[in-house]
């Protein structure tokens, strides 16, 4: 009986002789270049994602600060008077029975440390007051919060406007009377 051969004989014969035995240097260089190109593109995308995440974080912080400042003005904790680009400092919390000890992670915390050391504040705020057309009792109140960091090409800013009742007092006080004598907003 004549033996035809095992199935591996054909495979071995293909690799022996003049056939290819491995990867050429050109293929290694091409694969390495493709890998490096994809790493460069992915690292750029990661950097762009990080930049956009930082911008979104700053925009969110600016919105929170602007809303808080507007609420503080409406509550009478900050004066309702025109202010242009003043450093945004926290309002001292006093008379609330140890509330200062319970506030953790406040967004003003970094600003307190910076202002105490004499460094420039991170946020500035402006308050603009204007009359509303065809109304003697409504006043337009606009609060704008802007970033002061010079490392950014475009500092983040946020602006919030609201119409409020603003009755001037008979004594000629220009700040007006926002609250009723019984308490609460008019």
Helix/strand layout:
Blueprint: H1 7-15, H2 25-75, E1 83-87, H3 99-102, H4 109-117, E2 123-131, E3 138-147, E4 157-165
Antiparallel strand pairs: 1-2, 2-3, 3-4
Q: Which geometry do the CA atoms define?
A: rod-shaped
Count of helices?
4
For the sheet with most strands, the description reads: 4 strands, antiparallel
Number of DSSP E strands? 4
Notes on the protein architecture:
Mean pLDDT is 75; it is low at 97-105, 107-117 and 169-186. The chain has a domain at 24-86 and 124-165. It is α+β, with helices and mostly antiparallel strands and 186 residues long. The radius of gyration is 34 Å and the shape is rod-shaped. The protein has a 4-stranded antiparallel β-sheet. The chain has helices spanning 7-15, 25-75, 99-102, 109-117, and strands at residues 83-87, 123-131, 138-147, 157-165. The protein contains 4 helices and 4 strands. The relative contact order is 0.12. Helix content is 39%, strand content 18%. A hairpin with a 6-residue loop joins β2 and β3.
Keywords:
single chain; alpha+beta; four-stranded antiparallel beta sheet; 18% strand
Please provide a brief summary of the model.
By secondary structure, the chain is of the alpha+beta class. It is 39% helix and 18% strand. The protein has a domain of 105 residues.
